[in-house]
Amino acid sequence: MKEITGSTQLFGIVADPIAQVRTPQVLNAWFSRQGVDGVLVPFHVGSEDLATAFDAFRRMRNLGGFIVTVPHKTDTVALCDEVSERARAIGAANAVRREADGRLVGDMFDGMGFVEGLKSQGHDPRGRSVLLLGAGGAAAAIAHALAEAGVEQLTIANRTVAKAQAIAERTMHSVPGIRVHAVEKAESANHDMVVNATSLGMRADDPLPIAASQLRPGLLVAEIIMKPEMTALLQTAQENGCTIHLGRHMLDCQANLMGEFMLGRSVA
Ligand SMILES: NC(=O)c1ccc[n+]([C@@H]2O[C@H](COP(=O)([O-])OP(=O)(O)OC[C@H]3O[C@@H](n4cnc5c(N)ncnc54)[C@H](OP(=O)(O)O)[C@@H]3O)[C@@H](O)[C@H]2O)c1
């Protein structure tokens, strides 16, 4: 195991709850591969204390940056001193870099991580027609990144259709030329790719996020849930002859983007 010394740079992940996060394992392995003298540790901070924690982070001179996850991604936009255009358009940030003068700069990599993950498995989304299930924080970031990646058409299906409509409008505003539709009922006809960005699939008794009959052979079915690795959706999709894409590729690809960003190296 790496030795932590007085000159090791500190990084964190801020969440509540915290025990489920996988970022420490993934980012510390990345630091070690990159030869970076840094360590990333979990910071368990609740919403009521987030602003106080950010003030403390500004004053911690050996803090390089931190990752932000549930439930803080939206609040992070207002608490940073500066955020990227992408984070502002999505309304959420999940990585913060601390500049030498203590300023906190936020950016959002969920969507880029997802798109890079797809490409890493040979599934370039450019020109595809995508059905995105869900309209929460992860879906907003993925919609934006898929639009930027040049999908031909995007449909967002969500139980609360108003949230899907809001993401559709924001995406069309920030990525001109993309067509985004919001619907309540998920139907895969006229689409060649389905992405599950709902939280359905984490628990064994969750219903499928889309009817099994919609999973026809040839469709690419992508998951963003990491645990379990084979969700009921992926199992059913595989049985029905679809190509499947696992949730872990999104985090694996984000690690590189978030690490480079926190170290102040340029990220697209
Ligand atoms: N692989 C990765 O790197 C990565 C990164 C980020 C997130 N994630 C995963 O992505 C998932 C979503 O995260 P999030 O932050 O976007 O969550 P969120 O903001 O809470 O959104 C949850 C979404 O799931 C829908 N949903 C929840 N329960 C439902 C039900 N019973 N029936 C129908 N729809 C339901 C919600 O619909 P309503 O809007 O109608 O409530 C909403 O669209 C989580 O499992 C998270 O672990 C993975």
Can you give a write-up of this model?
There is one protein chain. By secondary structure, the protein is α/β, with parallel strands linked by helices. The chain has 2 domains: 100 residues, Leucine Dehydrogenase, chain A, domain 1 (Rossmann fold); 140 residues, NAD(P)-binding Rossmann-like Domain (Rossmann fold). The protein contains 9 helices and 12 strands. It has a 6-stranded mixed β-sheet with strand order 2-1-3-5-6-4, with helices on both faces. Strand 7, helix 6 and strand 8 form a beta-alpha-beta unit. Helix 1 packs across helix 9 and helix 5 packs across helix 9. It is globular. The two termini are 32 Å apart. NADP nicotinamide-adenine-dinucleotide phosphate binds next to helix 5, helix 6 and helix 9.
Features:
alpha/beta, Rossmann fold, 2 domains, six-stranded mixed β-sheet, binds NADP nicotinamide-adenine-dinucleotide phosphate
The secondary-structure class comes to: alpha/beta
Give the name of the CATH architecture of the largest domain: 3-Layer(aba) Sandwich
The amount of beta strand, in percent, is 15-25%
Shape: globular
* Helix and strand pattern: EHEHEHEHEEHEHEHEEEHEH
Q: Assign the CATH class of the largest domain.
A: Alpha Beta
Strand order of the largest sheet: 2-1-3-5-6-4
> Which oligomerization state do the chains in this entry correspond to?
single chain
- Mean of residue pLDDT? 96
How would a textbook summarize the main sheet? Answer: 6 strands, mixed
CATH fold category name of the largest domain: Rossmann fold
Separation of termini?
32 Å
Model regions low in confidence, pLDDT < 50 over at least 5 residues: none
Bin the helical content: 25-40%
Query: Can you identify the CATH superfamily of the largest domain?
Result: NAD(P)-binding Rossmann-like Domain
Number of domains: 2
Ligand species: NADP nicotinamide-adenine-dinucleotide phosphate
Radius of gyration (CA) equals 19 Å
| Count of alpha and pi helical runs | 9
